[in-house]
Amino acid sequence: MESIIYLVPIAFGVAIVALVAFYWTIKSRQYEDPKGDAERILMENDDRPL
Amino acid sequence: MRGAKCAGCLSKIENGVKAISGIENARLNLSTGRFTADWADTKFDPRQIVQTIVDLGYGAIPFQSQIGNSLQDKEAQNLLLAMTVAGVAMMFVMMFSQPIWMAAIYGEMGEGTRTLFHWLSALVALPAGLYAGMPFFSSAYNSLKKGHTNMDVPISLALILTAALSVYSTAKHGEHAFFDAIVMLEFFLLIGRYLDHRLRQKSRIAAQELMALQAVTAQRIGANGEATSVAVSNIAPNDLLIILPGDRIPVDGIVETGTSQADFSMINGETAPVLIGVGQKLLAGVLNLSGSITLRASAKSDDSFLAEIARLIEAGEQSKSQYVRLADKAAAAYVPLVHGAALLTFLGWLVVGGGFEQAIWNACAVLIITCPCALGLAVPAVQVVASGRLFKAGILVKSGDALERLAAVTHIVFDKTGVLTSGQPKWTNRAEIANEVIEIAVGLARASRHPLARALARAIGPGPAITGANEVPGYGIEATIGGNLVRMGRAEWVGASQTTSNESELWFKNGGATAIRFSFEDSLRADTIATITAIKAMGIKVEVLSGDKLEVVEKTAKEAGIAEFRGAQSPFEKAARLDELANNGAKVMMVGDGLNDAPALARAFVSMAPGAAADASQSAADLVFQGEKLDAVREAIVVGRLSKQRVLENFWFSAIYNLVTVPLAVLGMVTPPIAAIAMSSSSIIVSLNALRLHRYK
Questions:
Q1: Per the CB 3.0–4.6 Å rule, which of B139, B193, B239, B557 could disulfide with B544?
Q2: Residue B515 lies in a domain
Q3: pTM (global) more than 0.80
Q4: Which of B1, B5, B6, B10 is the best substitution to test chain A (most A C-beta atoms within 10 A)?
Q5: pLDDT of residue B371
Q6: CATH number reported for the structural domain that contains residue B220 in this entry
Q7: What pLDDT is stored for residue B66 in this prediction?
C-alpha cells in the first residue's frame, strides 16, 4: 500500500502536464485552420507557427 | 480570398504578398479562406496587396472588420477546455472509484483506505467539477434571474447537491460518494454542448461570410477625371461611376455613356442578355456583360433596389426565428417532470421515516440519473451526423433547426432559371450547321466574352481563338479571315435578312455568304425530371414561381412534370405567394437562386439555394447545394426526415430509460457504479443511434 504514496502524486503530475499541454494547444490556436496546417507541413520554406 | 484551395496557392499568395516591401507578415487561413497581412507604415497603400493577389490569379474581397472581431470564437474554446477538464477528471476519479467498487464486492478494503480514496476523488472532482460546470451554472443563474427555468437548472442543482452530499458522506466515513458522477455528467453534457455550439457557429460564420461578400467597392470618377475605388455605402446620388464588363451595378442609376449588354437575371430571373445604351435606367444587381459603361448614380445604396430586397430578407428571417426547436420543447417538458419527481422522492422518504439524509440522497439520485446526458446528446449528435452526411453530398446546412424544418415540408416551390434549368444557355441546332462554318464560328466565339459565344465555345471544347478579333460592345464580335470580314452577333449588325433579333440566338456571317443562325436554349438540369418525380412520390406538392415570361415558364414546368406554375412574378409577388401557401397550412420549401428569389427564400419555412446563386440569396437560404444535381433537394429532405426520426427515437429511448432507472433512484437503490454505467451507456446508445443516419438511403 505504501506505493500509493508515490503513485498518486505521480498520477496527478501526469494528468496536470497533459491538461496544461492541451490548454497550450488551444491557446496557440492550433484548431483554427486544420486545412491550412495540413498543407503547410509540406511547404519547403521555413514557415514558423503563429 | 477567392479561389485559394491548395498548398500551392497558400505559399504562392503568402510569399507573393510578403515580397512587397513594407509587408511584415502575411497569413492565409485555408479553412476559412481569410487572409491577413500586417504592415507598420501608415502611408502603405493596401491596394498593392489586392493587386498582387489579383496578378497571382486569385480574387480578394474586403472583409468587414466588425465581423472579423466576432469570429474569434471564445465560447468554443471555453467549452472545449471545460470538456477536456471534465474528461480528464472523469478518468482520473474513475481510477479511485474502481478499487472502491471492486472492494465492495470482494471486501478487501478497509474503511480508512476507502475514505482516503474518496478524499482523493474529491481533490480532483471538486475543482474540476466547479470549472467544467461553469457553463451550466452561469446559464442556470441567468435564466433564474429572468424568472424562468431551463434545462441547466436541474443539472446545476444535481451537481451542487451531489457534491455537497458526497463531501458530507466522506467526512462521516460513509460508504458511497458520487464524485465520479459529477464529472461524468459534465463530460457527456459538454460533448453535446460543444457539438451544438460548433454547428451553430459554423452556420453563423457561413451567413456572415456571405454578408461580407456583399461589401463590395465601386470605381468612382472624381472631379479630376481619375477613378478611385470607394465603398458602395459611400456612393452619393449624382456620382459618376465606371462599370467594367463583369461588374455588378452597385446602386440604381442611369447610363451616361457607352453601350453594353447586361444580365438582368438577378432582377427578373431571365438569363438572356439585354442590350443597354445611353439613358437606360439600371437597378442595382444588374450584371454588366460586354462593354464598359459610365453610370450616373440616382440613389444611395440604402435606397436602391438591392437594399429594398435586403430589408425584405431581414423581415422574412425574423418571422423564421419564431420556430421552437425540438430540443427546447423536450427541455420544457423535462424540467418540471424531473423537479417534481425529485421533490416527491424527498417528501416520500421523509414521510416513510427514512430521515433527512436518506431523503435528500435519493432525491439527488433522481436528479442525476434522469438522463440529462442522453437528452443533451439526443439532438446535437443527430444534427452533427446529418449535416456531415449532407456536406458529403455537397449540401451546406446553415442552421441546426433547418434540418428539423426540412422534415415537415409539404410543398416545394421552385424557381425556374438556374434551379430547374442549369441557368446556362446550351447550343441547340448543331445538326443544322456545316462543320466548316462551325470551325470558324468557334474560333471567333472563343475570343468573345458574350455568354452565348461562351456557350458555343463550351459546346465544342478548348481550341485556338482567332487573333485580332474585335468585340463591339452590344453588337457582337468581328474579325478579318482570309480577306473576308467575318461577324458574329446580333442579326441586324451581321447583316442577316431577318432584322429582328431574338436574345437567345447568335447570327454568323462570313463575307458575302448568307447569315447562319445559332440558337441557344437554357435546358433542364440532367436530373430535374427524375428528381421532381421522386419528390412527388414522397407525397410533396411541387410548384414553379418564376420571374420569366409565362409561356416560357409553362413550357419548362410541363417538361419537368410540374402542373402548378406562375410566371412574370415580381420578388414581392413571390413572397406573397409563399405567405398565401403558409396561411393554408402548408410548410413550404423554396428553392431559388436569383436576387429576385431572396425575399421568398427568407420568407419560406425552409429554403435552399444552389452554390451558383446570388450572394444575397445564398445568405437568405437555410441550405446551399453545390454541383449540377437538383437531386440535392430530395437528399436534403430525406436526411431531414431521417434525422427527425432519429431524434424522436432518441427521445423515446430516454423516456424508456427513465421508466427503468427513476424507480430505482426513487427507491434508493442507485449506487455509484450503477449511476456510472447507466449514464455512460445511455449516452453511448444515443450517439450510436445518431450514427445510423450515415447508412440509410
A1: B557
A2: yes
A3: no
A4: B10
A5: 63
A6: 2.70.150.10
A7: 46
